[in-house]
């Protein structure tokens, strides 16, 4: 059980998933979070009365314990940790849509400031593989990029979609960290430096990842699912109607094994066993959780679990003492358990009553009895598109027999009254119900399924089976797997010409690592060439707009000084003129910002397409050639050598 030991109310709102703790002077932990208007606040109650220097950092007028760092851009991610080999304390890393800032809070100075064209959606700091120095790794628009303490780019690769979560730990057990990447295409990918070594598929955007212990890690999805994996094997998962805003690993019962702490969008905080997912603690904040971190915030030698809300509420917890270790649930848990047992009792009584009524019906008319060998059968088939319905996989559910009753009882066929199918990522809400009308009841039900991706999915099927006049039905359950390529069908068109070409080659890779892929067609080159030209054009427009906005900002400052001078001199004619000019300049600035925003979104779309093309080119190879192709493609883009890029994609090398 966790015991609350302190509560703070900060006068700043906190952006979700942008909370960290850093020891910026090497000693005192400071709660750091992104807030509104492009600012980051640093809460340091241990150094009251110290005024920061004037660079980026300034004191909050609302709280003397808080310093504000002006980023002047919308913050998209942040973290803190040891980046440089000779730094006094932790380095603060702040990402935006276009830049990454590494900041020395103690000395109030920039460590480096880098432009990141692919954006920074999420960030993690630590060592990766054989790379000696720690890296600040950002995940952006289908790309991963890592910087060292000097801002040098030591790591870059592409991934399947926009990156939303990152974590570093030893996934393979070789003593070196791998990078786990959660993205919008529902995949969790494992990179050993720039080599993809493993991949797990979920059914929604992977919003959070956290290392627990060993090879075990927790994850959260955008649909309210949280769970735990051990390498590629999923231990458990649960789904909530609320969104998981933050997950963190913390040992709350001092048994040496961490639990999964989850902060939810409704303000609830719960702790679950890493083995079973059972809730062993819960509490509530007054608003949505923004982040969950840990640190010795009271400087008493004990690590506290610190939970923050979007409204600025901060609550610290410690594991309970020995006298409370036997009680892992809070006081409200007993009431919840009583309600759950009462609900279960009502369900059992209702089920018993249904059995009794069904037995009476059987005795009176013999209706409802089904043979003991009744089974549920399923079959999958591909259905091409028609005018009334698009192409789909049809799941056929039927029973294997009809009633076999004595001659004194009318013979009635079995019918399927309803079918429920539970599946991940196929149906909205992960479930689908087929409930035929009374006139259309039969022993067979057909369910159209349109899988959004080529992945295997388990279909958990429940069917209500009985007679046509039955009021009570038997529930049959069966699980069937939808194959990975279930939406593909064999073309039996005999008029098609057979293939005339073939290729024979030898490989040194295991056959399991080699799969079929579509080749890059030559007519795609023109499309990609146009994409790269568009990227250059968007970059050029971005630079021009940035320069124009800077010029307008200078004009505004000058106009404002002139307007105030005229006002103080009681020259109202000049004052009105200057403020009219200020109004026009402000309107132009707003319009330029809209143009710049649209230009930036178009640039991101083009960069995503380019990164995906590089990833497809890499996937046509395995092992070292794959990594060499990705690196060579990036070098070609850096040097703006389009022809070389296409040669690399086709042949794996830039040479003719």
TrEMBL record:
Pfam families with a match to the protein in the record: BBS2_CtH, BBS2_GAE, BBS2_hp, BBS2_Mid, BBS2_N
Q: Does the keyword Cytoplasm apply?
A: yes
Q: Which GO terms describe its cellular component?
A: BBSome; ciliary basal body; membrane; motile cilium; neuron projection
Instruction: Say if the entry is tagged with keyword Transmembrane.
Output: no
Q: Which InterPro entries match?
A: Bardet-Biedl_syndrome_2_prot, BBS2_CtH_dom, BBS2_GAE_dom, BBS2_hp_dom, BBS2_Mid, BBS2_N, WD40_repeat_dom_sf
Q: Which residues form the Ciliary BBSome complex subunit 2 N-terminal domain?
A: 20-126
Superkingdom in the source lineage: Eukaryota
What keywords were assigned to this record? Cell projection, Cilium, Cytoplasm, Cytoskeleton
Question: Where does the record place the BBS2 GAE domain?
Answer: 390-485
- What subcellular locations does the record give? Cell projection, Cilium; Cytoplasm, Cytoskeleton
The residues covered by the BBS2 hairpin domain are: 529-619
Q: Output this protein's name.
A: BBSome complex member BBS2
Annotated gene: bbs2
